């Protein structure tokens, strides 16, 4: 009988703040980071589960310690029994009677659970010899429903309703899978729009995005209205009328400021406005959504769990749902969120970028297309071309689409040298930077 034998963690940080990659109105100098873990077993197949929580620098040690706190919840567990009941495994972490106090179901501990759950999914897919999107899509509706904890959801989504959604998506699945493998899944790019880039770089990157086949770009906004109007005008001139431009305020505004700011940018045809205000403010988002319609409100990268997403949907607070692969408690909770979105008829356009988020989240959207919503209409996955070179199976973008990954696993595995060189503190990269600054 094989067991989990080891949970190893790494505090990995990339000095992205040096180039202002990833800069926005709230996160002015991020060092993209991963609180990373490797799960090992004594199965004798050499397979490991890799997962991580994404942070932006300081605090990544806290996030890593939270993952360490879950060691005894995993090490020693029967491997087959755990992989055979991933819904039960999820509940054993999320409902720990003492750790729960640190949330409940939010923040550092919940993200740590997400990292561990995703690492177990990585291992499950590797053992099955398929990518995670395929492992999920080939489950029966009953098995998929068995992954979900419906506590706090049944006023909006019952297990029977979830089953009905999944069964409705069964016809045509083989054709959709063939299309997915042929064309990939639509992407949009945030690369042109970081707030720290000057106008010339913005315009150049807008032209490049269109030339590369993207049909949507996104600009960071929210620091200065006059700057935003100028940048929005330049971007619109650069991409023309047919390319969608979304804007992202990264939680910068109060509700009245958001409405005023978005109205000022609306003449340049805003496709969606992302994170206009606090991610916890369900009613604030609903007020903004009503005021700025038909411009869409998008949010989700900081929505901490399925319960807040449920309320956002019930309140009509978002028109675009941006789940994140590493914010909530892993695959299981994101499957619940995909089903909630399908119930309310809201398209899911996941948050990605950061480090490794593109690699992970593509699997969830591809599963959604095959087995949940059955559609790619108005659905795009965020793409940012940062840090993919550190992964063994990096995402591939072709003609503005994510190419469906075919290697077994979740795509979460980083190069061994990256884990060593970028380890914080003490890795080669950080030692060199310290010396340069002395
Ligand atoms: Mg965003």
Automatic annotation (TrEMBL):
It catalyses: L-fuconate = 2-dehydro-3-deoxy-L-fuconate + H2O. GO terms for molecular function: L-fuconate dehydratase activity; magnesium ion binding. Keywords: Lyase, Magnesium, Metal-binding. It comes from the Bacteria. This is L-fuconate dehydratase. Pfam families: MR_MLE_C, MR_MLE_N. GO terms for biological process: amino acid catabolic process; carbohydrate catabolic process. Its cofactor is Mg(2+). PANTHER family: ENOLASE SUPERFAMILY, MANDELATE RACEMASE, MITOCHONDRIAL ENOLASE SUPERFAMILY MEMBER 1. SUPFAM superfamilies: Enolase C-terminal domain-like, Enolase N-terminal domain-like. Its EC number is 4.2.1.68. The keyword Metal-binding applies. It comes from Kribbella sandramycini. Residues 199-295 form the Mandelate racemase/muconate lactonizing enzyme C-terminal domain.
């Amino acid at each position: 009988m094989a067991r989990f034998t080891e949970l190893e963690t790494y505090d990995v940080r990339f000095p992205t703040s040096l180039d202002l990659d990833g800069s926005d109105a709230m996160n002015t100098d991020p060092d993209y980071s991963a609180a990373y873990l490797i799960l090992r077993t004594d199965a004798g197949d050499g397979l490991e589960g890799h997962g991580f929580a994404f942070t932006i620098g300081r605090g990544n040690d806290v996030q890593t310690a939270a993952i360490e706190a879950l060691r005894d919840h995993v090490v020693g567990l029967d491997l087959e029994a755990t992989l055979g009941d991933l819904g039960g495994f999820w509940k054993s972490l999320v409902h720990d009677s003492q750790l729960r106090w640190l949330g409940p179901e939010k923040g550092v501990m919940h993200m740590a659970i997400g990292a561990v759950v995703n690492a177990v999914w990585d291992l499950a897919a590797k053992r099955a010899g398929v990518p995670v999107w395929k492992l999920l899509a080939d489950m029966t509706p009953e098995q998929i429903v068995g992954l979900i904890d419906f506590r706090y959801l049944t006023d909006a989504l019952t297990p029977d309703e979830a089953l009905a959604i999944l069964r409705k998506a069964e016809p045509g699945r083989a054709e959709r899978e063939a299309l997915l493998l042929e064309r990939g899944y639509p992407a949009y790019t945030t690369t042109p729009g970081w707030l720290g880039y000057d106008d010339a770089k913005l315009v150049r990157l807008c032209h490049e995005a269109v030339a590369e086949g993207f049909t949507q770009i996104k600009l960071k906004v929210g620091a200065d209205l006059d700057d935003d109007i100028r940048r929005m005008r330049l971007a619109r001139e650069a991409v023309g009328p047919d390319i969608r431009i979304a804007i992202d305020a990264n939680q910068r505004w109060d509700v009245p400021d958001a409405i005023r700011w978005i109205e000022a940018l609306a003449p340049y045809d805003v496709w969606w406005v992302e994170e206009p205000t606090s991610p916890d403010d369900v009613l604030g988002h609903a007020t903004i959504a009503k005021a700025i319609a038909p411009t869409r409100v998008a949010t989700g990268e900081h929505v901490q769990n399925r319960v807040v997403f449920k309320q956002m949907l019930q309140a009509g607070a978002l028109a675009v749902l941006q789940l994140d692969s590493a914010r909530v408690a892993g695959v299981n909770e994101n499957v619940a969120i995909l089903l909630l979105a399908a119930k309310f008829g809201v398209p899911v356009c996941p948050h990605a970028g950061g480090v490794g988020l593109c690699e992970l989240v593509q699997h969830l959207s591809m599963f959604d297309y095959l087995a949940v919503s059955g559609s790619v209409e108005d659905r795009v996955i965020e793409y940012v071309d940062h840090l993919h070179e550190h992964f063994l199976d990096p995402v591939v973008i072709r003609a503005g689409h994510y190419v469906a990954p075919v290697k077994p696993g979740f795509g979460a595995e980083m190069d061994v040298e990256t884990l060593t060189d970028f380890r914080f503190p003490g890795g080669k990269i950080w030692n060199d930077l310290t010396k340069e600054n002395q």
